[in-house]
Amino acid sequence: MVNAGAIMVCALLQTLVKPKMTLPEKFDFLLNYLRRMAGGESIEFNNDVFMSERDHADRNYALGFLMSEYKCFPEGSALQECMDFYFQSCSVEVTCDSMVVIAGTLANGGVCPITDEAVLCPGTIRNVLSLMHSCGMYDFSGQFAFKVGLPAKSGVCGAMLIVVPGVMGICTWSPPLDSLGNSVRGVQFCEVREGLAPLICMCIVETTRLVGCIWR
What we know:
Elements: H1 2-16, H2 23-37, E1 43-45, H3 47-55, H4 58-69, H5 79-89, E2 92-94, H6 96-107, H7 122-135, H8 141-147, E3 152-154, E4 159-164, E5 168-173, H9 184-191, H10 196-205, E6 211-215
Parallel strand pairs: 5-6
Antiparallel strand pairs: 1-2, 3-4, 4-5
Protein name: glutaminase
EC number: 3.5.1.2
Organism: Timema podura (Walking stick)
């Protein structure tokens, strides 16, 4: 479900948003948005990851062909270009510093806490955080929502992006993964009372300043 949704988002971006752009221009457009959300912090492209994603993509291609069979894609979509755009988007390389600013932007209603630029509108942030809360932690999302109750997104690189709306953004990075593909220590950090709760209490005291936290 998560991958199918991401492929569909790429198809919508490719076809409906600035449709006259070439595929490289569209990817630069995406990177620019991410860099604005990160306040100018490092956002790069990893070609080795891109090649690996494309060479081991049987399941993603199957999802793409299934959605194409049911005519889910916007009219005029080119499936191979859409899949390449998806693989490129999966190969964006970030740092903990850039991730925590992105988390802060999501926590701040779409306004980057570093540059004060309104990158995304509040309605978009509401939708993004709702999706993060409901499916951001793969098959563990339901339990995470019950135990932690915060929007979060994990990645197979071991990173986790956690949003405390109106308070702060958090990035954790610890590569060992559990059986569901989430960072073991990242999940533990969020679940234990001594981990996340004191940070939330600390930041509530200073409500006028959004704080970003990095945990490695």
